[in-house]
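Need tRNA (guanine-N(1)-)-methyltransferase's 3D structure for a figure. Predict it.
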Amino acid sequence: MRIDIVTIFPEFFDVLDISLLGKARQAGIIDLGVHNLRDATTDRHRTVDDTPYGGGAGMVMKPEPWGKTLDGILSADGSDADHEKGPLVIFPSPAGEVFTQSMARELSTEEHLVFGCGRYEGIDQRVFDDTATRARVRLVSLGDYVLNGGEVAVMAMIEAIGRLIPGVVGNPHSLVEESHEDGLLEAPSYTKPASWRGLDVPPVLLSGNHAAIAAWRREQQLERTRRVRPDLLQP
Ligand code: ADE
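Structure prediction for tRNA (guanine-N(1)-)-methyltransferase:
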């Protein structure tokens, strides 16, 4: 998968060199490009924001540097003739649809994702409208809270999406038994020693009875989901 990120803080994404995603890049599974939005400015101060039309607090990101940067990325992909199949451009935004495990799974099958990290009070609306004439565009929110900018949200999305790409996580079975994969929270996990600080591992897990273990885990998942996230059990 090709991933492009547009940001005014390119250093923020240096951590994608390490861990599982770093290995996936070295293995050629993920091809990453990080673009500094300020490289597309023409003034001495490399200005990317301005005051909002109509008044109001804060600053809005100007359309020109975004247009120029996205033009470069989208034209390099060479697929804007048929934009149902070309790159998918994602703008993290508290005003977007909520990111979920099923969205991560859907996005993990894309060939080319472009993430545009907004800062300040947002990006000029015409950037979304103009981009939508050439590519699929989605506004995506991490949840019902406000971050200072899109960078942290993009990092979270790339981690959730990247680990679902075949070959990124060594043992694909470990993906199946996780929270949210079957719509429930995952069961608690234990490792050795069997007794620690007076706390014992539930005996069923030491029994070797696989059916009993599966039933126990399922019951734990249901109990935990009912208690912590009853909203997930609504039809
Ligand atoms: N940018 C600011 N807040 C955000 C959120 N909750 N999700 C995604 N991007 C954001």
